[in-house]
Amino acid sequence: MIVHSRELFRILMLLVGIFSWSCLVWATPSNSGPPQRRQSARPSQKKATPKKPAVDYTKFSHQTHFISQKLACNSCHKVPSKNWKTVRTGDAAFPDVADFPEHASCLNCHREQFFMRQRPAPAICSNCHIAVTPRDTARWLFPSLGDLTDPKLKRREFVSEFVVGFPHDKHIDVVGQLGEPTYKRKHALFVTASLQETKKEKPPASCPVCHSTYQPQGNSSEEYVTKPPKNLGDNFWLKKGTFKTIPNSHTVCFSCHNADSGVAPEPKDCNVCHKLITTENKLAVDFDDKLAAEMGITDQLMLNRWSRRISSGGFRHEGGEHPDLSCLMCHNAANPNFNTVDSKTLKVPVKSCGGADGCHITATLDDGGILNFEIDQRKKNPTFVCTKCHITFGKEPIPETHSGAIPVSKPKVGLNHFMRRVVLASWSRRAG
Q1: How many other β-carbons are positioned within 10 Å of the β-carbon of residue 312?
Q2: 292 falls within a domain
Q3: Domain tally, the chain
Q4: Which is nearest to 129 in space by CA: 103, 161, 160, 105?
């Protein structure tokens, strides 16, 4: 009985060993067998199309709305806006575009952006509103209200997308005088003046209506805008009375161009005057922002006017005899080709610096012309920098317009040459 049990146990253990060995052989891959079929490769996925950059709705673009979407100005701007009697009061009030478009103008296309769950308020609201919160709905001062000076009114700093296309040749023959109030306000009434007035060496009477000397020195002993360094010497430092102002509101324009006068264009024709800025005809400017920062110039009007100077960055309208000269002696404003939209037509020609009596350009260096002196210095030293008129242009090669502006002195006629001409003239008369 015991023997049979042992035999059965041995047979059982043998069967277990055979079974384990079989499982091991079957589980081990064999290199001698037929090649196994590989799974078919997955089809290659197409490259994902790059997503368009997200639109920044905090930066409103007239280019998008006017050029791309072909929207008319009056589809958003209403003339006059509802608040025209409150931004200016009393006699100063007149029908004007004095506020941003209402919400209804935006909701037509931007309903999704208006109702996005952004806190404290949708980002698109910051184009018009100051705090961008449901509790504070105050708006920025509309850009065309540049004549308002109340410090409580907050003005947003931005770079305008527009330039004003103003036809100077059609306005140069008028003068500004105070007339009877129109729209219950005092304003400039334009009357015809003689063009002969502009030919004299004094400013045309119409120019000061829109352009006045900004921060003039007058009788003050302080001629610089900010305190210059003690070792300034002959180096440039910005002086008072350097710039002229330009209109910053519709106040003067709407004196004649209003719905009752019938003088076109009317206030609702925005795009007749306001032109979108393009990159074409953009000229280099004689301006150094680092130098302006070093001088501590923070006045936005100064920086704006200075950063657009395409001729002489250092020219001072209040300097020397400039206030007594006619504006038309330098600015070709009476020419129909003078176009405020095209920078090239606004450039002041260097010949205007010569003047009737020579001024800064003379026939010879001995006559004291500044241009003559600096060109002579550049001939002697190629690294010489012209600083009498220019800020950054003085390092560049002297343009042909400057060299050609110097009058060619006529050679002196000697006695022998004079006698020869007399004899030849006498022979000519005899021969005739």
Answers
A1: 17
A2: no
A3: 1
A4: 103
